[in-house]
Structures are given as structure tokens and as C-alpha cells.
Amino acid sequence: MEINKNQILESNKKGLESHNENFDFLANKLTKQGKDVNQIVAKLADFQVAIPSWALGAGGTRFGRFSFYGEPSSLEQKIDDIGILHSLTQTAGAVSLHIPWDIPSDYAAIKEKADALNIKFDAVNSNTFQDQKDAAESYKYGSLSNTSKAVRDQAIQHNLDVIKIGDKLGSKALTVWLADGSCFPGQNNFQTAFQNTQDSLIDIYKGLPEDWKLLVEYKPYEPNFYSTVIQDWGASLMLANGCGDKAYTLVDLGHHLPNSNIEQIVSILQLKGKLGGFHFNDSKYGDDDLTVGSIKPYALFLIFNELVYGMQNNPQNPDLAWMIDASHNVKDPLEDLIQSLEAIQEAYAKAMLIDQNALKAAQLDNDVVKCQEILQGAYRTDVRALLEKARLNSGGALSPINAYRDLDIRNTLITERGKHTIATGL
């Protein structure tokens, strides 16, 4: 299924008058505050977030999975779904593949389809947290950190194979997340596991094309609950530094212990030029993988405050890879992704409203109250009209959720694909 421009234009007619009134009011208000509204709208329009290939189907838990029907059963159909998202939001212009779930059978055809939908290939993701069919070795006791050289070599080769796949598609980064760790005290020698991981990553790093990045992800627990080899951003940073200048830390918003100050982590990594990218989601208890901004929207805003500051003041840090990494347990996956994209854009827009010069002055004066007022003044601003304008300027929908429902997209997908298709990688 593809959405044509006329369908979006027709959907936009219902809300256009209201949008114009809201935008004019907000634009006048922000202009009086010295904000360049056109520049903010342009930056919102340019901001693209990758959709992971595994996120187009229904998610699940250890106890069950409930389909929303009409799921994409092939990589081609997944890219079609991202095309729907991008047509509506104009901010989902990239796909992030997870290998071996989504190995193209015809690279030229996949690239042609993605190009037709204006979708690029973002970072590719390896998978050594599951045993693959007919694999010679098992990852039950770890992959890159395993005590067995044969297991480590298999995991290294898988990552090198993923790089080759991504290179054929135009990707420029490899993301490595390890489930490696231990469930019980004494199970692993911490130093040996860490050193094995470092050595393995160095071997993978040697296989990177010159213009690629290696993104090292971290997580404090799960599936191992006593220790994780790459447990926090410090471990990730050490491993990245041990590989070389093309290796960076990747931050997943769900991969932190409760109440961690993620915005501080982001800020320091940017200062050191070692923040490589983001996986967006939200959480109440742990790695819940909930819709972005559904639980802690103010925390997301504070993270974007640091990101905006870093993008303006830390040229030593490269352009970041942005991706949504959420699980849609009870929602239509496409609606959930639309909500996540909206939340990301909203946090970004609000962060751009912060008067960084005034905030700096208040910080230097130790005016704590003023600092809070500046931040919360930006956060309390309703910026939805700015997001709508950015989408309109790019040919997107005023309200992507309403357009999605007005066009009856899910039922159309069910008609085309059937009820009981299941997306790979779930």
C-alpha cells in the first residue's frame, strides 16, 4: 500500500484553518521572544528518525504476543510500512535492519524500493543474543565475551557479515548490543569477559569500511541479572576508546537503572566526542520499550536540551544516528511509531526554544530559580503547530494519527496481507 499526495491533501483540509490560526498565534508569540520560527520549522523538517525493521509487527512479552493483523511478513513489506509512516510524518526517512532477521534476497530491488519511498538505510544491527538455525556454536554463555574462542570467532564473523550486508545497501554504521553476562556470582571472571569483548570488538572494528562507525550499546541487566559485560556508558566508552576513533557509545533510553541522569551522560559523551547515536523509547520500571514520551516526557525534553546544546557547541562529536526501539504490545505498531515520532519532534522543538544564553547567564550567577523558569517556560509551550507546519512544508499530514485512521490503513493492510501474517524478528 502506498499513500498518494492527494489523499494527504484531502485529509489536511479538515484541520487546515485551525492549524493556521494556532501557528500564527504561536509564531507571533515566539517571534516577540526573539525566536527564529522559520529556522526551527526547517530543523524539524530535516530531523529524520530511523525505524527498525523489527518494529513493524506486534511486540510481545515472555508470556504472550497478540497480533494486530496485517503484519509485514517480508522486508519488502516492512519498507512499504515505513513508507506509509514517512508519507504521513515526513520524519521517518530511514530504516535500520536487524540481521539475520532481514537479509535482502535481492539487494538491487530493495534499494530501488527504498529509494522510491525516499528511505535511506541507517545503522545495521547484529544479533548474537540468539542461537541461529544450523549455527555451529551456541551463545548460551555469551558471544563476544565467551570463554570459547570458537564461539567468539563465530560472533565476530557474524558482525563482519552484517557489515558487508549494510555496505551493499549504503549503511554507514554497525550497532553492537550484547546480551553477554552472568546469572550467578562466580559464573564469569569479570576481567576475562571484558577483555575478550574488547579483543572481539577490535577484530570487528578492523573490518569497518573507512567511512563507517561502530556503535557500542550498553545495558545494566537482562537477560542476565547478576552482571552484564557492557553494563553502562563507562564500559561502552572504554570499549569504544579501545577500538579507535570510529567507535562510539550508543544510548538506549531504556538501558539504565531507575532514575539515572541520562541527560548528564549524553552531555559528557558529546563533550568527549563519543556519542554515536540514540535508541528512543520510554519506561516505567526498566527496559519497558514503551512509546516514546508516554511516561517521562519532561526527562525526554531535558535530554534534548543537552543534545541541542551539544549540537551547537561540540563540533568534535559526529552527527548522531537516531532510531526508535520500542515494543508495541497492545497498540497498532504503526500508530505507536507515529506517536513516538511526534514525541521526539515535540521534545526537540521545545529544546530549541530554550534561551541558551540566558540559561548560561543564570547558571553563572547561580540563579537556580531562574534556570528552572527558563527550562520550564520552554517545556510548557505548546509546540504542536510548529510540528504541523514542518510536516505541511514537507508534504506530510497535519495529524498523522487522524490521517492514518481516516485512510483506514490497517484494514487495507489486512485486506492485502491477511490477518495471520507475522513479522520476522519477533
Please sum up the structure shown.
The chain is α/β, with parallel strands linked by helices. The chain has 16 helices and eleven strands.
Helices and strands in order:
Blueprint: H1 5-13, H2 16-32, H3 37-46, E1 50-52, H4 75-89, E2 94-96, H5 107-116, E3 120-121, E4 124-125, H6 149-169, E5 173-176, E6 181-182, H7 190-206, E7 213-217, E8 227-228, H8 233-243, E9 247-252, H9 262-271, E10 275-280, H10 297-313, E11 321-324, H11 333-352, H12 356-364, H13 368-379, H14 384-394, H15 400-406, H16 409-417
Parallel strand pairs: 1-2, 2-3, 4-5, 5-7, 7-9, 9-10, 10-11
Antiparallel strand pairs: 6-8
Helix pairs in contact: 2-14, 3-14, 6-7, 9-10, 10-11, 12-13
Search tags:
6-stranded parallel sheet
Q: Identify low-pLDDT runs.
A: none
Number of helices: 16
Order of helices and strands: HHHEHEHEEHEEHEEHEHEHEHHHHHH
Strand runs, count: 11
Major beta sheet summary:
6 strands, parallel
What structural category characterises the helix and strand content? alpha/beta
Report the radius of gyration as a whole number of Å. 22 Å
- Helicity level: 40-55%
Q: Span between N and C termini?
A: 22 Å
The shape, in one word, is globular
Residue-averaged pLDDT: 96
Strand % is 5-15%
Strand order of the largest sheet: 4-5-7-9-10-11
